[in-house]
């Protein structure tokens, strides 16, 4: 039986996935190449450093560790410029309603995000108060698809993995949930999130009943 809900942030609660994409694209363009939206799927849920490594590989570009650090910092500065202007209006449809409903139904909630910017986003969008625990990129050493971020969330909430369901828009995130022994609800397309137990287009398509039926 499900007792706790672990939420990815980017692309599940807020549409920051587009800001990540824009910032990475801009960075790739400054190096003289581009990448597609299909390739971008592989960056979702993946840490900043690992995203950069993938992008450099796509462009066939080699950089030193110092250069990589500068590039990641540059991308993040563009990204932070965008997220510091976010408002609660950018919370994805149905999010506040669904979080309120499951909270009232007695489920515990945790954030499980790879982002080091989660505090800024939760604060700007006024979502922070929903979460009993927050686990983000500042607290983990292994990037999704490693289950570390979700296992940490479950243990902080005091539940076993099988009592938890993860909400994820990323292939890597769904894999992390499954590897951790949890249920996964995919937010996006069924053809992309093939490992998820259920896939919906957004939190606006979910009710408490869906959790009881998992
Ligand atoms: C994830 C995003 O939530 O966080 C990735 O899906 C991103 O695209 C990762 O790279 C790390 O985020 P940040 O904000 O620490 O660069
Ligand atoms: Mg995501």
TrEMBL record:
GO biological process annotation, one example: carbohydrate metabolic process
Record note on cofactor: Binds 2 magnesium ions per subunit.
Site (Important for catalytic activity and assists the phosphoryl transfer reaction to Asp8 by balancing charge and orienting the reacting groups): 113, 144
Entry annotated with the keyword Metal-binding: yes
InterPro entries from the UniProt entry: B-phosphoglucomutase_hydrolase, Beta-PGM, HAD-like_sf, HAD-like_SPP, HAD-SF_hydro_IA, HAD_sf, PGP-like_dom2
NCBIfam families: bPGM, HAD-SF-IA-v3, PGMB-YQAB-SF
Protein name, per record: Beta-phosphoglucomutase
Protein species of origin: Pedobacter soli
């Amino acid at each position: 039986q499900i007792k706790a809900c672990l939420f990815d942030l980017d692309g599940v609660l807020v549409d920051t996935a587009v800001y990540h994409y824009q910032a990475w694209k801009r960075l790739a363009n400054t190096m003289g190449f581009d990448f597609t939206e299909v390739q971008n799927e592989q960056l979702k849920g993946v840490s900043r450093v690992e995203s950069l490594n993938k992008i450099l590989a796509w462009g066939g570009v080699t950089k030193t560790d110092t250069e990589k650090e500068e590039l990641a910092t540059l991308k993040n500065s563009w990204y932070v410029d965008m997220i510091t202007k976010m408002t609660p209006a950018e919370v994805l449809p149905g999010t506040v309603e669904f979080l309120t409903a499951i909270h009232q139904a007695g489920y515990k909630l945790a954030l499980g995000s790879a982002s080091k910017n989660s505090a800024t986003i939760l604060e700007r969008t006024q979502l922070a108060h929903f979460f009993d625990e927050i686990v983000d990129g500042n607290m983990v050493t292994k990037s999704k698809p490693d289950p570390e971020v979700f296992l940490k969330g479950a243990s902080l909430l005091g539940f076993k993995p099988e009592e938890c369901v993860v909400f994820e828009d990323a292939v890597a995130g769904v894999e992390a949930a499954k590897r951790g022994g949890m249920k996964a609800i995919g937010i996006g397309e069924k053809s992309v999130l093939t490992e998820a137990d259920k896939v919906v287009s957004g939190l606006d398509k979910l009710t408490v009943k869906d959790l009881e039926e998992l």
